[in-house]
Specification:
Layout: H1 14-65, E1 100-101, E2 110-111
Antiparallel strand pairs: 1-2
């Protein structure tokens, strides 16, 4: 004859599962703003690096073509030979969607987002 053992029921209770879900939700609520902030900081640093490269290209253009402060620059065609181009064979754009402009030798280039975003997309 077979005997049936009384084994205790194992598993998680509803309260235990709810506590685990709440802890995971709390961790996600703390992490998501940090990820968004890190992304904004990375975009600003990349934009500033692009502005520095554009400024250097403008200085090289002016030096090679005998331009002086105040002379006009035809952006981007004048600077294309003096800067590393992206995969589309153009001057890299702002990663946050802004556009760059530089019109005169001696003035720093600017991003259209400028100080309207945080952190700002301006040269230091």
């Amino acid at each position: 004859m077979k005997t049936i053992l009384n084994l205790p029921k194992t598993g998680f209770t509803l309260v235990e599962i709810m506590i685990v879900v709440a802890v995971i939700g709390l961790l996600a609520a703390m992490a998501i703003p940090n990820f968004a902030n890190a992304r904004a900081n990375a975009q600003a640093r990349s934009c500033i690096n692009n502005l520095i490269q554009i400024d250097d290209a403008a200085e090289q253009f002016a030096l090679e073509n005998g331009k002086k402060n105040g002379d006009a620059i035809n952006y981007p065609s004048d600077l294309t030979p003096f800067i590393k181009l992206n995969a589309a064979h153009g001057i890299p754009g702002c990663p946050a969607g802004g556009s760059y402009s530089v019109s005169v030798v001696g003035t720093p280039p600017a991003c259209s987002l400028g100080s309207t975003v945080s952190p700002a997309h301006v040269l230091p």
